[in-house]
């Protein structure tokens, strides 16, 4: 990476690349797949974990490619990585919120954007994203999913935008998402942990984790059960 | 004498050596007196001097032993010895009566010290190369073994320095200064001598090639191949360079002495290709007759036998005849064989030797036998092996005999005075090539004329002789038999735009190209005047009648069809042809009639062609598309079934026959390649139209070598890699296969050619690329002077040719043919070149000012220099070629801006002793005076003062070249730069820093022969140089200067009216100013004004630019609107406003840290009270703004969360009890109202924020 000022295309590419790296990291951190599926690599001057499974990698890179295309059109609002259980209930949502700040049309997308961030400092930001992402586990509740976990990538477009179709013969890679997985479908109880955000001057990006209401509900129930158990144990002791 | 050394020598050793010294003292050395007297001993103790570095007593002991009897020890010790010896001589001179030293060790030490002293006193310039000698002579300690070599080298350098001191100081010659030489292997003169030469003349002799960077040149007489590779990028020279340089007292260019590997100087190393001869004998030409089979086994041994005696001969010309007679005698003794021996009876008489036959037979073998090649004088052994019955290794006996006769030699070989001219007068090839280029020129001229509308003379219909005129016909009868076509003129049929027709996108199939070719041109031309010979086997060659005997090596230029039926081919020697057809008839060359016929031929063609390419004197390609299309149209309407193209060709043939009485064959097709193929079919005396639909069929049977442009090498490759050479099979191969097998270019061309595709256009106006002169017949020299004279002869020939086409050249290539060491001295072809090694060298050909030239003297100089640099034995030369390329026409050349002018001054003898330019001393005070004055004044006015030095530079044209060139390189470059700048801006004051900074650090004196110790300081340096650059006869200038300086002179001169005060203001010396001519005064004033106004002189553009009004370029439609450059946008961060200390002052906070610290202050101030509603609202508004995506963006959310987290922390710190109230845990926890109020406000804010955040993310924010 150089200290060259980003162009629009570079910003989009950089962000897409980061999203790909981050997805791998999320899958590792949230233990969706066994840890030995991942290899440790270096990216943005920080260790990251990348899946070794070709099919998974293909899926992720395919999705990211589609995301990058949409981003280039300026349609994307959020990219959400959903961690869901067997019943397809989203437990955690990793939200990459994207905001295009300059209109996507009407300029050469390969020229440097005046006043924008440099590629080098963007990489540094991504590094801090990843470091915080690695630590997020501490502030999130346990999912205790064992082998049932899976994930999905949800693309939330801006209002009134539809996925662009590059080739009418090829069906678009996207399918409508489960309501519970989407932002409007999130229950009020869900809790959002902001991880990091960056303003590049071209596209702003933030990453947040949202624990879904369902997950929090489950945790509470579990806590209650535990409390009850403790009480019972305590009572039992009293009886003794 | 011992005093200084005492103090020094104590430094040599550390105390730990004392043991060794003690041991040394106690040791009784051979030759020592058992009880040496005490005094001496003490001296030894005091001195504690021990030069040799060996730390072991035993070693020391041995050294001394050897010292005594001077036998061969390890080299280091020997060196040491020689040092002592050389010192010893000077030592003895200087030492006064000393008691004879009683111990060897003592002497040794003593001398050594002396040497050192001497060395130190000199303080040689070499000192930087010589490491600290203290260190050098210190003993090698334990663990310092690696130092051994380093020290050794250093010691050798010290020794060298001493050598230099001894021998060289009387002359002070420093010609090898800055050169470090390594000598490799055995040399002549010996290494010792060379070393002395080098060292005495200021060079550095490197005995070891440890680091290549240390060595600038390598001197050698012979190198192993491995070393050749190793030294590939180094300057490897022959020892003569050193010797000659010393003799010439200057450093000669090393390039002229480059060591060229490939010669084997010692016969003991054997002949280069002992193996190859065997190989060649076996892969010799395939001759599938029984006769030749019996020949081969005989030949091989005889050839092998002849080799060894040949090698030692090569350097001795006078021995040639006798000793090489040996081999040929052997041949004869062997009886049959050799085709060159004059015994035709031994060879089966006329066997039909048709080359195609054995070829097809031997095809079955895996290796492809090379195609027979017909030439009498192949120039490589590979080619030679392809020539049937050509014995590459046998000497020509006739040639040997005549060569032995010096008189004959003088008259007939290249030594002869007018050889070059004579050669060209009789060279058939020369005529042919000249004619070709002349014909091309004629064609081109005719076309140009046609285009300009001058040549409109001939009707379109074109029947018969009135077509065009050959104006040269009158000239042809000239007695002086000028066979040049230069005076001829061709007339083009019509000035139509059809010349451009070739550019038109004609359908390829529509084009009609005719390939017109005389049938055995030379023969048929000769037969015109000898009608009685028609129908007989006739050949054209130099040799006439029976005079050459059966062994004539004269080459057959052309053979009639009757002769060809015997197997006679063009290029064979007459002798070979005789064997095939004993009653063959020879006729001589008739260049006159060839020329005439050729011109007539071209005239006819010209009158019919749209476009014409002159291929050679008897061959041309014409484009007749338009005529044929017309005819076709007519024929079509007439419903005639005949082919109009063929009809037209026949009519052309008829016309040519009528004009020349010779038969022409014409091949017709739609492109050049096919037309050539068609001609093969048309011959003899016919025409053939190869129609597009028949192409594939026609080509299937042909061989790859039949295609024009594909030779035997391509064929061989195809056979090796593809296994086929038939076009019909090749056509099935894919393009990639062909490209892979034959290379990309050839493969592609072949792929197209196989499909009958050829997109070449007729090259009627291809410009001439080069002019050359190659002579490789009769080149037999004895001395270098002869070669030199010959080269100059050739140069004048080239000049003639360049003049004839009115061109100048910029580059010169020299081609040398040198006898292959394995080839006999006399080539099988009489006076031919035989098997040769070929060498090429190229160099730019530059006349004065870097211009192109055609001056024969310059061409000769260049060529001779190149040839000299090869350093070949003149006797070995067999061919010399000079080629001048990068041609430009004279008119073109004059337009080219002249480069730097050559300084044309009388050469001075640089070695003149005494003061250099006595005259120049006279002017010193004057000029200096002026200079200083101007300097002062300018400095006062803060002008760039150094520039004034430039005032002294004489005009470039007057600079003495020899002095200029003798300047050290860096100095010269500076001056050149200064001149360049000066020529760019005529105002010297404006020249930025004429004497750049490097001058300040300049210390190295120039070559002492030129400027002996003249440079004392930088200031005088420049002045002196400038003066010396000035012409020597500048008395007049000085005197005028003087007179001008006097006030009288000042008034006389017309000058610009300007006050002295004004001049002062400009920083100009009025005195100097008024001395200048009017024009320059104006200029100077103008410049000074500009400087005053702008502070600098606007740069003069290096090229003169013509100012033109700029045309507004129309903006293309699609570029009308240019998008503005994208600009980054950042969301405006929300701020928290707070009142400052003063009432009016408002503080705005945006950063998270600031807000947090403010929050803390706020809470700290209010922690005893409930928060004020207004404050909470303020904060909440701020946070809400942050969370609001449309305002704060995601980073705002991040910030808000950070603030909230901090608030939470603070709350927990101040009011820990109140947090859990909401949870409804009333039991036992003390709650206070203040805390509750704070927590409530926090929760209220949180709720509002959650609502806001929900829009974007759903759910609520977590502050965990």
UniProtKB/TrEMBL annotation, chain A:
Concerning InterPro entries, the annotation shows: HORMA_dom (IPR003511), HORMA_dom_sf (IPR036570), Mad2-like (IPR045091)
SUPFAM superfamilies in the record, alphabetically?
The spindle assembly checkpoint protein mad2 (SSF56019)
Instruction: Provide GO CC annotations from the record.
Output: zeta DNA polymerase complex
Question: Which key words tag this protein in UniProt?
Answer: DNA-binding
Give any Pfam family that matches.
HORMA
Q: Which residues form the HORMA domain?
A: 9-209
Q: GO MF terms on file?
A: DNA binding
Q: Provide the residue span(s) of the region labelled Disordered.
A: 164-185, 212-240
The UniProt entry, under PANTHER family, shows: MITOTIC SPINDLE ASSEMBLY CHECKPOINT PROTEIN MAD2, MITOTIC SPINDLE ASSEMBLY CHECKPOINT PROTEIN MAD2B
Can you tell me which family this protein belongs to? Belongs to the MAD2 family.
UniProt protein name: DNA-binding protein
Task: Give the organism, scientific name.
Answer: Crucibulum laeve
UniProtKB/TrEMBL annotation, chain B:
Domain UmuC as annotated: residue spans: 513-711
Record localization:
Nucleus
Q: Which GO terms describe its biological process?
A: DNA repair; error-free translesion synthesis; error-prone translesion synthesis
| Reported cofactor(s) | Mg(2+)
Q: Which Pfam families match?
A: BRCT_2, IMS, IMS_C, IMS_HHH_1, REV1_C
GO CC annotation: nucleus
Region listing for Disordered, in residue ranges: 29-103, 279-382
Tell me the Gene3D superfamilies matching this sequence.
3.30.70.270, 3.40.1170.60, 5' to 3' exonuclease, C-terminal subdomain, 6.10.250.1490, 6.10.250.1630, BRCT domain, DNA polymerase, Y-family, little finger domain, DNA repair protein Rev1, C-terminal domain
Q: Which residues form the BRCT domain?
A: 171-259
Question: Its domain of life?
Answer: Eukaryota
Identify the keywords attached in UniProt to this record, alphabetized.
Answer: DNA damage, DNA repair, DNA synthesis, DNA-binding, Magnesium, Metal-binding, Nucleotidyltransferase, Nucleus, Transferase
Q: Does the keyword DNA repair apply?
A: yes
MF terms per GO, please? damaged DNA binding; deoxycytidyl transferase activity; DNA-directed DNA polymerase activity; metal ion binding
Q: Which family does the entry's similarity section mention?
A: Belongs to the DNA polymerase type-Y family.
Q: What is this protein called?
A: DNA repair protein REV1
